[in-house]
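Trying the structure run again after the queue cleared.
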Amino acid sequence: MAANGLTIAQLAAAIERFTAGRLAATITGDPDRRVDSVAPLEAAGGTQLGFLANPRYRAAALASRAAAIVLDAASAAEIFPAGRTEGSLIVCDAPYAWFALAAQQLAPVQAFEPRRADSARIAETAAVDATARVDELAVIDAGARIGPRAWIGAGCYVGANASVGEATRLHPGARLLAGCTIGARGIVHAGAVIGADGFGFAPLDGRWIKIPQIGRVAIGDDVEIGANTTIDRGTMGDTVVEDGVKIDNQVQIGHNCRIGAHTVIAGCVGIAGSATIGRGCQLGGAAMILGHLSIADGTVISSGTLVSRTIAEPGFYTGFFPLMKNRDWERNAATLRRLDQLRERVRALEARLQGNDDA
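Done. Tokens:
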């Protein structure tokens, strides 16, 4: 970001170029006014950019002192039919995405310089690009590969034969265990563990025999993984996270799962082993996905929902149920599946009784 920010016109042009015209915006007001940061509508000052997320914040938008407000055409016409006297409006089809890209443009960039800290331990057979950065107390094991401009934070561990792609950042304390890979431009937040053993045990005479977990975790490009999230390695094949996936904090992904491209997963979701999540899905916080099932591309799962069967048809799914003994739950769940039929039968009986009373 420029030291004193960008003009609204410069910001709009940068976002339009980055999105190949997809997020072109119309500016009403002074396009040469400079902005240097983003802020909530009610707190924004004369050099800050605000965002109208919901028409319910109409009063905050009207009172805002922000240099510019990003919003859609319908909201602009309703709330500011004559424009703003205090500042500018930036009108576009996808204001949330526009604002997100603007925030990236305006965010202070943390200084990056290639270096290898003296306290870092880098195996002789590891290949660390000359433009990469390895911070204090990081460990990079034998055969590992660190790509151009990658950043391995303080106390990170990159296991034997693991691979970190170009411009990917591992925040302090992240773990990428042996043989696991992450592509370009990824972000792995502090405390995340990629490639721990999956939960694999075979029963015998009341005891459990460990099944060696010899697969990997293979992560694509542009993936973000939240703090303290864990992604288990495959039992034999790989656990796969495709390009563009965004994973929140404290998510558990079991062995041999596949997460489709550009899916988003909110905090505390648990996905059991060998589940396949389609592309472009949205999993709400604390959703639970049982193992060995599939979820169709584009499916949305509400927070706290338990997915216990394959979802073949995309849609918006929600499921909450009171805690009870499993036998009772199964009986009630079976009744619930026939609830529409039962309702129609009750209506038919009521209609017949009404007819008899009229006679």
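The helical segments are 8-18, 58-63, 73-79, 95-106, 326-337, 339-358. Worth checking whether this holds up in the mutant runs.
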